[in-house]
Amino acid sequence: MIIIVNLGCTAAWWLARSPSSIIKGLSVWIRTNRVAGSCAVRVLFFFNLAHAHFILKMAAVQGGLVDANEEKDIKSEPANDTWANNNANDGRLPSASPGASAAAGAPEDQQTLLAVLQFLRKNKLTESVEILRREAGLPEDSLESKGADSSGAGSGGAAAAAGEDQPDVNVVLSAYSQQGDPVLYPVYYSGLKRFIETVLDCHRAELSQVFYPLFVHMYLELVYNNHESEAKAFFEKFCGDQECYYGDDLRILSSLSKREHMRGNETLLDFRTSKFVLRISRDSYQLLKRHLQERQNNQIWNIIQEHLYIDIFDGIPRSKGQIDAMSGSLAGEAKREANKAKVYYGLLKEPEIELPLDDEDEEAENEEGKPKKKKPKKDSMGSKSKKQDPNAPAQTRIPLPELKDSDKLDKIMYMKEATKKIRLGPDNLPSICFYSFLNAYQGLTAVDFTDDSSLIAGGFADSTVRVWSVTPKKLRKVKSAADLNLIDKESDDVLERIMDEKTASESKILHGHSGPVYGISFSPDRNYLLSSSEDGTIRLWSLLTFTCLVGYKGHNYPVWDTQFSPHGYYFISGGHDRVARLWATDHYQPLRMFSGHLADITCTRFHPNSNYVATGSSDRTIRLWDVLNGNCVRIFTGHKGPIHTLAFSPNGKFLASGATDGRVLLWDIGHGLMIGELKGHTDTVYSLRFSRDGEILASGSMDNTVRLWDATKAFDDLETDDFTAATGHIHLQDNSQELLLGTYMTKSTPVIHLHFTRRNLLLAAGAYNP
Amino acid sequence: MADREERRFAEISRESVKFMAESSGVELGDDVAALLAEDVCYRLREAAQSSSQFMRHAKRRKLTVEDFNRALHWSNVEAVCGYGAQDALPFRSAKEGELFFIEDRDVNLVELALATNIPKGCAETMVRVNVSYLDGKGNLEPQGTVPTAVQSLSDDLLKYYQQITRAILGEDPHLMKVALLDLQSNAKIAALLPYFVYVISGVKSVSHDLEQLNRLLHMVKSLVQNPYLYLGSYVRSLVSSVMYCILEPLAASINPLNDHWTLRDYAALLLSHIFWTHGDLVSGLYHQILLSLQKVLSDPVRPLCSHYGAVVGLHALGWKAVERVLFPHLPAYWANLQAVLDDYSVSNAQVKADGHKVYGAILVAVERLLKMKALSLSQPAEGGSSGHTGSVVGAMGYRVSSPGLSPPPEPLSEAALGIASHLQAGGAGCPWEEWTPVPLPAMYCELYSFFGDSLAVRFSTGPGFGSYLPYAPSQLGEARKEAPGPASNPDTTRKMPQLTANLNISPRHDGSPRTDPAPPSLAATGPGRSLTRSSTSTSSVQRSRSCSSRSGQRPAGLSRDVFPKARFTSPQAGIPAFTFLIGGRQMGRRCQGRRPFQTTFAPTPPLPAVPPRAYAHKLPVIGRVGRPVRRWACSCYSLHLPL
């Protein structure tokens, strides 16, 4: 009982810190734990919730208490990491219930509690129901009446809360149940269309954004109310008006014509559960509002109220180009607040490593200077201080593994190599070596190189992982336990002696998965390999024994990508279940779950300082998550297709992303802005990589080309004035052609991986398709 | 509405649904069918949508059946099996009615298994790197130049391969010559080597067709002579194919009209050629070949043609091989051969004829053995070093038959473990492990005990040999001095080989067109004797063999005539020494009488003591001689001479 109380206080602290997100946090927590969580834990949490509410209420009355609580609970924070994760949804929370966050009053609370009660009852957790009711002081019958009310009524906080409860499809969809005359829908829509076409040019582009979400919701309403023929007619009539980049979604939408079909359709649920975000200037918004009120056009107004979130800003309306650059995602643009949080994008200080002076190299003396020499290079793109980057997170913000001796040796190797690094630039382009996978009948699905380019691994559709040695050094296994016992452990070359020469071969095959391997990643120390597969597992392989060490189960659906942290130990994975998970190699359960994407997570990348992870998704957004607290700190919209690759610049300031639309977009992480668009590829961009100094960006695509872009120029041209930063309005120049430094054809090989060696030689890899 | 829908999506008609329902015994109303059809369409579209993401993540452009099955799997639907093929499935319409179906052809497994077209092997998955762009500029080498070992054949190569094989195995002899010549000199066919080797390994399937076998052997020769090809471990496979031709009781040899003897001779020549030129590529090859030859030789169940092959094979490998394998084995083998030759029953005629061929082959082999041995012994007398130079001379002498190529040194101590079917390891007791060289006189005596005068006659034919003998050690004894005696008469010695050679040129002309230069036989017909001395012996080997292989009666008569004399002496001589004495005496006597005999003999054949060959053709064919051998095994030294 003591533990419970203690945890309760902890939770209360968290809740007190972000009262607006209580409800969301809870419901998301419920959602994410539905699969894996146990009932016991759930009940426990509801205890805490009950506590939380009391404390919260008290806090509202007497503000001092919260501080006391906070102080008390800070100490227990580390133990509380997993709970902190509940706040992961900060990014989307306001979007879902913008009204609720404004005033978390008593009636709101009441309704939330009712919703919780309803949930508990539905899951037959009668004891919890009892306890919660007792604690909340709710009357016995309140649930019945209110519950019925909340599910029946199409609007209100309760419905919104229940709407978060994703699988409860009926509740979600019931919002559509309000009846309007189906015949009038096209009339309403064309009326609005006429109006928008007649407004001033400067407003037209902004107001045109309304068309698509309105169209979708009206169509769904018609379908839901069984007006099948009307729905089809409506679709036929207006689908031509929609922006071409919504084509994929429209195709899914058009295939749906029955109410029954709506239940299982995930895309629709996403659309329904999240509000479509529009950014409209105040003037334009007023115009629209006035028009709708004048016409008494309640049908449309209701939809705008319920399903759209209009982010109003002051200032001149945006142009069509500006809008098009940012739109295209499944749920509209990101809200401006979503990208306001501070991101510590700076790099961590490199650990001081004493370079051995007895090095036989004549350069030994120079090497003392190497770390310093390296830094300026890295900072050439703008960070101010060599000592400690003010934008860098605290060194211990995320506990990182200690450096082992072998890691230090590797760092020394890295520094030595770095001295021989070629300085790249527009006039000094890298040489490209292509690693062709021959006879890959099984279907090559993923490739990774080790950082020192000594090993290459391929994931195949036949569920195997194959590792090749790129150097003449063959791959060897460690001897068996019996043989290891015979080894003199004191000898200097013990590391050499443990290897079994008999097993030396150029490549090794790792069997274990039962589905195509979609993502692989080497650990920085080259001792491990991660692979994620369609079978829903992530496997950790030892590259010493070439056996599987752990199978991480958590994603119950295909895992599309996984990557080791640059510091090792942690890794991130994302897949079809839309949740990105952060793992540590020694935990069989995830440390963090990042949920918020509305569709599959297709790619995952660690920030160079390991404090953040970026995920790209089929919902055409990129999210940046804080590893420490699980918050979503950035949402980038602008891609018009599923995102398949991400790359952080070496200085951690920028992010590049590539998608099926063939475009590469550049993002400024600090300001949360799109800063560049690189057009050129004609097919999906599957790989992106910055050169070691960040001067060149290489992109590889399905169209059998590698393209090199001038990253320095792309970032230097950037004029980030305060206005742009504040409003998020970007003016992109169309300078792709100037930035494109070269296009390099392969013969018939899609480029699915790129890697810069430590000396800035570009390695590309793909399977030869004769 | 419906047609609009049709334009956007594939649609399943309600009739289809009804048909399906009926096929599973359910009656559906129209409205139900319509609903079902619509729902099925929707589900299909949904599955197609979700399958596309598997395609995207597999980084492909083509949606496969597998992608679709995965989508079905994740929506808890059973996978559709049977469409996993990578090739496009042909979609056909039936002539009657609007019925479309996927063509599902019958696969003839027998045809597939015996198909002569070679499947493009499934090579190992590997990674190869090439520098595509140096300093961002210039394409040094177009990416995708796959190393030959793993390259799937380009269309050009495939065409070349087809043309070449067609030409070689086809009807037109001129085309075949051209193809073989190209195969001999083309520098770009390394990628095709495994395919050619595979074709050649098809000897086993055409053992009924001498012509095809011959052509395949020619192919081997061309490949071996191509200086741009590195045969590597394919040597083993080639050797195995050649050995097959040498040793196996080919189906073609059932018919006595088929001249499989020439084929075996040619294959043996080829074997030695491969061995001398490429033997170093596979360790222990020499050993393995010897083992398998020995195994055949010591297997009494095998037909005589196999034994013949083993003997010519050994002969082709050089006199050392003969000394090591054939000579120690001879006493045991002789019994079997004797048995065959002594059986005058009509049913045995064919086998007996075969036996004579073996006899001739052995005779030629041991003759050269003796000559070379004597040569090797005479060398140390001059140079001081013993066996080594002898072997060098032997090798040198042999090299004439495979010109311009140095013999590889073969470590004899190496254990032989065969992989190919004809390179099986022999029994545990390798005879050459305890093998000790037999001194020349003893060897001669022993051999004389088998062959008698026919051996002596042989020696008289080697004119150069006589010049060496004076240097021979004194312990050679009088027999050795006696032996060259007749050789001192140059006239007779010259006449004898020339005569037989003339007989033998003809098969070479009417034989299959050989691109093989066959230097030994050519050199032998020429008068240049002192230089091509050893090749003369080879040529005489060939001659005598061809001689016997011809169905002419005169050579057979010759051996018939000489043979009994030898046999008459050998059984009497219980021990070699004794034989030697008697033999020497006998030989001396015979030699005196032989010269006139021979001169008179050569133009006109002696009494037809043998049943005419014409008989033999009418006889039932006997493939194996298992029974007679066993029957005669105990009476090996029978004195019952039918003369």
Please give a structural write-up:
The complex is a heterodimer of chains A (770) and B (643). Chain A has 770 residues and is an alpha+beta fold. In chain A, 37% of the residues lie in helices and 23% in strands. The longest helix of chain A has 23 residues, at 39-61. The radius of gyration of chain A is 28 Å and the shape is globular. In chain A, 48% of the residues are buried. Chain B is mostly helical and 643 residues long. Among the domains of chain B are: 9-82, Histone, subunit A, CATH 1.10.20; 155-278, Serine Threonine Protein Phosphatase 5, Tetratricopeptide repeat (Alpha Horseshoe); 284-377 and 438-459, no CATH class. Chain B is 60% helix and 3% strand. Chain B contains 28 helices and 4 strands. Chain B has helices at 2-8, 14-23, 30-57, 65-74, 109-114, 155-169, 173-185, 193-200, 210-225, 234-247, 260-278, 285-297, 304-317, 319-342, 349-383, 387-399, 440-451, 453-461, 463-468, 477-482, 484-487, 490-510, 519-525, 533-549, 553-572, 576-601, 613-618, 626-632, and strands spanning 91-93, 100-102, 126-134, 137-139. In chain B, the strands form 2 sheets. In chain B, strands 1-2 form a two-stranded antiparallel ribbon. In chain B, strands 3-4 form a two-stranded antiparallel sheet. In chain B, helix 3 packs across helix 4, helix 7 (173-185) packs parallel to helix 9 and helix 15 (349-383) packs antiparallel against helix 17. The radius of gyration of chain B is 34 Å and the shape is elongated. Chain B starts with a helix and ends in an 11-residue tail after the last helix. The chains are: A alpha+beta (770), B mainly alpha (643). Strand 3 (432-438) of chain A pairs antiparallel with strand 3 (126-134) of chain B. Chain A: InterPro entries: LisH (IPR006594), TFIID_NTD2 (IPR007582), TFIID_NTD2_sf (IPR037264), WD40/YVTN_repeat-like_dom_sf (IPR015943), WD40_PAC1 (IPR020472), WD40_repeat_CS (IPR019775), WD40_repeat_dom_sf (IPR036322), WD40_rpt (IPR001680). Chain A: Its main location: nucleus. Chain A: It is found in: Nucleus.
